[in-house]
């Protein structure tokens, strides 16, 4: 509603834009009624629509209300109707004593130059006018109207637009352009005096490629395209009529509702709430911009309308660390705990019996660090290292994390603040107490999480070159909250455990010697006993353990991982038993399941190192239900025998002497026969890599052509290379053999 402004406020008035004319409106009047009126007053309200599509409200925010533009000559006016953009040119009183004539002449000279022509901005060689350019005050004018109160009736006309007009300084851009033109002309004149003739320039002809739909959408939404689109709309020039002009008086009559004789029934039949909703409808922009779930404040009523998986994800993303009991209380008593357990494992990891949100949830794929700009992949790896450290101990030292991850202090501090609190002179302690109740209640979930942490640990050891500790690791489900131990205490614990293990092994060795001495192996044969040094025994043990180290696929750690029936693996009968299953003699269900996994894996991958195969097997175990037959225990030798029995062969790749690959990474297996047409091509390729660590493509192509006796197409060569190899620096390597 347009009204007289208070002293000191800004000027505003209404204007009607018609076909080629611009008419200002008188300002409406509002004020307090006389004190003699009663509290109850009824006023008839009419809606005038004659100017609904033409009525604009002009605001001058840089102009006091006491200084109007009513008596200032308007030289020109123009509008772009679609954009609701208006430009007005108003004269400047050059005879006013406050006007600096020398400054006005200087501005006109800078803009137009010394020569005046028809295109000059200031034809009088004096800045005698100024331009006002509009901007939209609001894009939604459905709530605003201009009101006219006359003879006890209130007439409302909806506003088509609300525009704010401010002085435009585009003439300064013209002055800069003139200055640059003069400088360019002077430089061109100087250089042309030294040149006898123009240089011949080469012209490159380019043809534009067909534009895709995605590229077209990006181009349409770009800022340059929108500016070009706005510039294409033509200006519509208008004639300005003054406030006291007869045409203005005639147009002002359209602010009154035509035909308001009272014949129509104007009685209000709506309820107060409906009438209020009609007067103040909800803004569509506010409904559109309303977030589904705020990042810092959660509406539980709104949250419970989402699917269960989204509820868990949003809660964990905001809380970061939470016990399972607290999560169930937030989700409500009617939610099934099994469904929550299934959903929480997709977005969080188990640390000391509590759930910590996964790193890739906090750092999506295309994001980066706000502190250092490090990509999300590096941040996730560093945060996973911090989470893994908390699975080993209650305490973490920030400097140690920064030294290993090579991340800045701010990033490491963010990781720790998500899941720990700082203690003076101690380090960072995990923020929640150890939840032993959850560990005892859900051993299957704990076991699956342990398998996942095993895979993450192997990845971290490879990336950060971590040295494996001699002490057995503690899993979340096996140990209670760990205490903070100094270096000397750790050494003493290791020594005591080593002495206990040594004594146990000595007793077991003596018992077996007595059994052998008491039993007759063959008649007439005597067994000669010779003393064996402890050093020799230790050497044999190490060789036996290196020859066959079982995969860590169970929750048990420490001594039982390295013992078979109470003896080291090198001394046990059979030499390689694990969990009661001799290698190569596994039960039929276990062998079938293991072979099915191996065959399915090599049908997808074709070439795998033993290290990568073990990692994939651990992930496969983590996805299996508790009590599956594969949890009975699978050794490395059993896995390798199954691979060889499934139609695969070990490729003896000649690694360079300075390679950093581990022994498991140097054991390369490849699918030899799969029954398809590419078997012969793959076998030739694998024979090449059995003699070469890396090969160029032309050598592979010529060898394939020579062995297969036909000219292979590029697609066939690409397929066999894609199945088995990777390319780095123009050379091709078998998958898994090149260190990233």
Automatic annotation (TrEMBL):
<dbReference type="InterPro" id="IPR045576">
    <property type="entry name" value="RPC5_C"/>
</dbReference>
<dbReference type="GO" id="GO:0005666">
    <property type="term" value="C:RNA polymerase III complex"/>
</dbReference>
<keyword id="KW-0240">DNA-directed RNA polymerase</keyword>
<dbReference type="InterPro" id="IPR006886">
    <property type="entry name" value="RNA_pol_III_Rpc5"/>
</dbReference>
<keyword id="KW-0804">Transcription</keyword>
<dbReference type="Pfam" id="PF04801">
    <property type="entry name" value="RPC5"/>
</dbReference>
<feature type="region of interest" description="Disordered">
    <location>
        <begin position="176"/>
        <end position="201"/>
    </location>
</feature>
<feature type="domain" description="DNA-directed RNA polymerase III subunit RPC5 C-terminal">
    <location>
        <begin position="473"/>
        <end position="740"/>
    </location>
</feature>
<feature type="compositionally biased region" description="Basic and acidic residues">
    <location>
        <begin position="176"/>
        <end position="185"/>
    </location>
</feature>
<feature type="region of interest" description="Disordered">
    <location>
        <begin position="526"/>
        <end position="580"/>
    </location>
</feature>
<dbReference type="Pfam" id="PF19725">
    <property type="entry name" value="RPC5_C"/>
</dbReference>
<protein>
    <submittedName>
        <fullName>DNA-directed RNA polymerase III subunit RPC5 isoform X4</fullName>
    </submittedName>
</protein>
<feature type="compositionally biased region" description="Acidic residues">
    <location>
        <begin position="532"/>
        <end position="551"/>
    </location>
</feature>
<dbReference type="GO" id="GO:0042797">
    <property type="term" value="P:tRNA transcription by RNA polymerase III"/>
</dbReference>
